[in-house]
């Protein structure tokens, strides 16, 4: 196993179990303690784990909010597949909304050039991706820019959303569970996300499997508010059925 593959497995284990320890990981991967310590140091430098005595904890459990660049560097293949699958949900013409996020950013990169679409977004990075697209009528939501996520929030964004209506809102979330719904660390972003869903005929969540079962500070929707969840094949057995029981269709890609 390559170091990158082992580190990805360590990160997934930490997010699933809430913590990993050096001794257990060394035995599981049949490598030395020092190799595992180097892996944990590398993951900490990427901003996805925090070292603690004897092991590490995912940043989500400590209340840290990874930057967009950090989130964009993990689960890359899964996010590409999810974004590609989301293309099936685009209308032939009309308006869509792209929430700020690393997977929605990949969807922006893959938007077709053979149809006219109005794209509403609060993501600075997505807006920059789409500025040269002549077939896209780009509507950028103003407001206070959160540099950590490159998302606009607060009153200006909310007022624009209150006067808008789109066919599909492609949403991002830091966590989703049947019990807690859709959550994100920042209350201001949660408020904008809530308004996004309210402005859309259909709401589609793009979320890799590491988000499922995680909870963050601010709740912005219930699972039943969604029409569709697109996730990847790493989703634990039974979770797709559990989510579908709450209302939305779940597509695993």
From TrEMBL:
Single Gene Ontology MF annotation: DNA-binding transcription factor activity
SUPFAM superfamilies: NagB/RpiA/CoA transferase-like, Winged helix' DNA-binding domain
Pfam families in the record: DeoRC, HTH_DeoR
InterPro entries, sorted: Carb_Metab_HTH_regulators, DeoR-like_C, DeoR_HTH, NagB/RpiA_transferase-like, WH-like_DNA-bd_sf, WH_DNA-bd_sf
Key words of the record: Repressor, Transcription, Transcription regulation
Domain of life: Bacteria
Domain HTH deoR-type residues, every copy: 3-58
Described purpose of this protein according to its UniProt entry: Repressor of the lactose catabolism operon. Galactose-6-phosphate is the inducer.
PANTHER family the UniProt entry points to: GLYCEROL-3-PHOSPHATE REGULON REPRESSOR, HTH-TYPE TRANSCRIPTIONAL REGULATOR SRLR-RELATED
UniProt-recorded name of the protein: Lactose phosphotransferase system repressor
Taxonomic lineage from the root: Bacteria, Bacillati, Actinomycetota, Actinomycetes, Streptosporangiales
């Amino acid at each position: 196993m390559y170091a990158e593959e082992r580190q990805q497995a360590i990160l997934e284990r930490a997010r699933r179990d809430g913590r990993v320890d050096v001794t257990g990981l060394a035995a599981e991967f049949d490598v030395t303690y020092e190799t595992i310590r180097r892996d944990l140091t590398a993951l900490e430098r990427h901003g996805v784990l925090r070292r603690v005595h004897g092991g590490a904890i995912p940043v989500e459990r400590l209340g840290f909010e990874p930057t967009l660049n950090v989130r964009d560097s993990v689960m890359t293949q899964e996010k590409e597949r999810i974004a590609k699958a989301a293309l099936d949900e685009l209308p032939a013409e009309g308006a869509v909304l792209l929430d700020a996020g690393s997977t929605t950013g990949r969807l922006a990169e893959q938007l077709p050039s053979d149809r006219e679409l109005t794209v509403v977004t609060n993501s600075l990075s997505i807006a920059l991706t789409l500025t040269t697209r002549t077939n896209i009528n780009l509507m950028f939501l103003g407001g206070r820019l959160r540099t950590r996520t490159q998302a606009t929030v607060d009153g200006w964004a909310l007022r624009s959303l209150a006067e808008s209506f789109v066919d599909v809102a492609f949403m991002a979330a830091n966590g989703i569970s049947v019990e807690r719904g859709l959550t994100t660390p920042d209350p201001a972003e949660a408020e904008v996300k809530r308004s996004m869903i309210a402005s859309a005929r259909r709401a589609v969540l793009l979320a890799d499997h590491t988000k499922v079962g995680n909870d963050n500070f601010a709740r912005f929707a219930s699972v039943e508010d969604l029409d569709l969840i697109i996730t990847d094949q790493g989703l634990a057995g039974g979770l797709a059925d559990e989510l579908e029981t709450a209302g939305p269709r779940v597509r695993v890609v």
